[in-house]
Design goal:
Two copies of one chain form a homodimer. Chain A has 339 residues and is an alpha/beta fold. Chain A is built from twelve helices and eleven strands. A five-stranded mixed sheet of chain A has the order 5-6-9-7-8. The first copy, chain A, has a four-stranded parallel sheet with strand order 3-2-1-4, sandwiched between helices. In chain A, strands 10-11 form a two-stranded antiparallel sheet. The termini of chain A are far apart. The first copy, chain A, has three domains: 2-121, Isopropylmalate Dehydrogenase, CATH 3.40.718; 134-236, no CATH class; 279-339, no CATH class. The first copy, chain A, has helices at 18-28, 46-55, 77-83, 88-97, 110-121, 156-174, 195-205, 217-221, 232-260, 267-276, 302-318, 320-330; strands spanning 6-9, 40-44, 64-66, 103-106, 131-136, 143-146, 181-184, 211-215, 227-229, 284-287, 292-295. In chain A, strand 10 (284-287) and strand 11 form a beta hairpin. Chains A and B meet through helix 1, strand 4, helix 5, strand 5 and helix 6 of A and helix 1, strand 4, helix 5, strand 5 and helix 6 of B. Strand 11 (292-295) of chain A pairs parallel with strand 4 of chain B, so a sheet runs across the interface.
Chain lengths: 339, 339
């Protein structure tokens, strides 16, 4: 029984412990798959937990495991794990080790959670490196991406195992048989990308997994794969970028909609597209070559071409290249070593 | 005079030559900074160019340089550049070399454009590697990111020079004095990230540039830096991901707005947020550790916590970990080599 219990780190996260305890209550009241209070082990400061329940209708029967310390969001994970022996995230890991829980949920310091879990629980038999798996569900077709930041120094063997773990996960939780596994890369051909990409491509192609080859950004939102594997560095960069961009775009959308609310017309879409069209720039400059080179998107229309010509004209007129030569001479601290 | 001319690859891009020629015409009619026809050199199939102008009011005076071949969007750049000696992109580069133009604009095969430019023009004095610079302008505050894919095997010295080139560009074209340069990374501390990140951080910190340290995705959309440098692999992944995500989100927004148009109410925002909220997933699974670990976002509210508990419960119930162990045993082709 206790193996199916979930230890909840009540002290981690920006809105702890309130949001965590509220979440535990909500989980017992879900229409689908409601959890019993007994199946959620609250780990954290028992006084704070009791105080919250006193003010919010009482504890309906959640077991509580006291932990006297909290690892804050901005602490260095390694240092904090060494210094704080009785942290709430550490308590969750201990609960699993002691057989009092089978799972843990943590909204706190991600690095501390990964570190405490990996060191305290070890990896599964045959698994070399844990990976953080995120399931994007925006398109209506779930796509699981990993690793999103557990393992910075990924090797091809790790990416192969991410493919295996992601496929199992998609089968078990989303009923996707033989998940299509893609490798996040900068082009379709097997020869594209870093050495890690090339070696991982070879390993995945030879693995017996349902490997669909390299995938690029837009493929993810076209549901071209069910599982997308990448190294933890690229995954983490990617994750935070999607977060930043979607947050920004949605804020822009809401502002624009509210501005149009009084006088609703088709214009809101035009305004939105002008404000968020990220190909508005018209073109990219290839900086550093001995000439002014503007590269645009293949699907550019006349306006984009006109913008690209404008950019080229401005770069020429401003004499950017002469200034780059001056700048590289002035900031030449990298000059000694071989390029 | 001809040094300020811009060579336009009229044959490159999905909508060539029409969109390119239309763009050239638009550039001569801009309200601000209109270009004279004489300042745009059209490079491509002269028969196709003449035919387009015959059908669209005539050539107002653009000079034309014939090129008999086109490198298609999906061709391998290296092979195509070798095989097609009279390509339109090659013609643009030749025009710069011959002094007939100072800049070129290309909407065609990006790899071919980078290759032809780098080989044909060489780098500027002191510059080791060209970098593709994209200026994001969505937030109203321009941010230039580079390298977006010219140089996959970037070194710290290259990233330093991207910082220099990006700063010069921001000063010359956007009047940003002492541009704030950030390094795209997975955390704030100098010790974060790959070896390339750490070494680049040290070099940038010591460079005399206005280096603001590491930046993450959301920082870009909070305008925490004017220039963001990264290696060409990460930059290219990032660029295409932003493209895919913003395209997807805006399509969703437009669909939702159109669906609500007949009966306009505040609900459209709620619907949008539900459909695009990418933190809806509640949490990420740390796959591979000996226990079920769900990591959520620090800013999670009660609903996100409840979703994370649900995910943990489902992973336990489905016995994902046992299946991962089986899966890793079955797909063990990476097992021979050391981890």
């Amino acid at each position: 029984m206790t193996k199916s219990r979930i230890a909840l780190d009540v002290m981690g996260g920006d809105h702890a412990p309130g949001a965590l305890l509220e979440g535990a209550l909500l989980a017992t009241k879900r229409e689908e798959r409601a959890l019993s209070p007994d199946s959620i082990l609250l780990v954290g400061d028992e006084v704070a937990i009791q105080a919250w329940f006193d003010a919010n209708g009482g504890n309906p029967g959640f077991p509580v495991q006291h932990a006297s310390e909290v690892i804050e969001m901005d602490e260095s994970p390694a240092k904090a794990l060494r210094a704080k022996r009785d942290s709430s995230i550490g308590g969750c890991v201990k609960a699993i080790r002691a057989g009092d829980a089978g799972a843990l949920v943590c909204m706190g310091n991600t690095g501390a959670c990964v570190g405490a879990s990996t060191l305290g629980l070890g990896t599964l038999e045959g698994v070399r490196r844990p990976g953080i798996a995120i399931t994007l569900r925006m398109t209506g077709h779930p796509v699981t991406m990993l690793d999103m930041g557990a393992n910075i120094a990924s090797k091809p063997e790790h990416l192969l195992q991410y493919g295996v773990m992601g496929s199992v996960f998609m089968r078990d939780l989303f009923d996707v048989k033989e998940a299509r596994v893609g490798l996040l890369n900068i082009g379709e051909e097997p020869s594209k990308g870093t050495d890690l990409c090339k070696d991982s491509h070879a390993l995945l192609a030879d693995s017996g997994l349902n490997f669909v080859g390299n995938v690029e950004g837009p493929d993810i939102f076209r549901s071209a794969a069910d599982v997308v594997v990448t190294d933890g560095y690229t995954g983490n960069i990617t994750l935070k970028l999607m977060e930043g961009l979607s947050g920004f775009l949605m804020k822009t959308v809401v502002t624009e909609i509210q501005a149009h609310k009084a006088d609703w017309s088709g214009d809101v879409i035009g305004a939105l597209q002008r404000n968020t069209d990220y190909s508005e720039y018209g073109g990219a400059l290839l900086l550093g070559v001995n000439g002014t080179v503007v590269i645009g998107h293949g699907r550019s229309d006349g306006t984009a071409v006109s913008n690209a010509l404008d950019l080229a004209g401005r770069a020429l007129q401003a004499d950017v290249n002469a200034h780059i030569v001056e700048g590289c001479a002035a900031f030449a601290s990298g000059k000694e070593s071989a390029s």
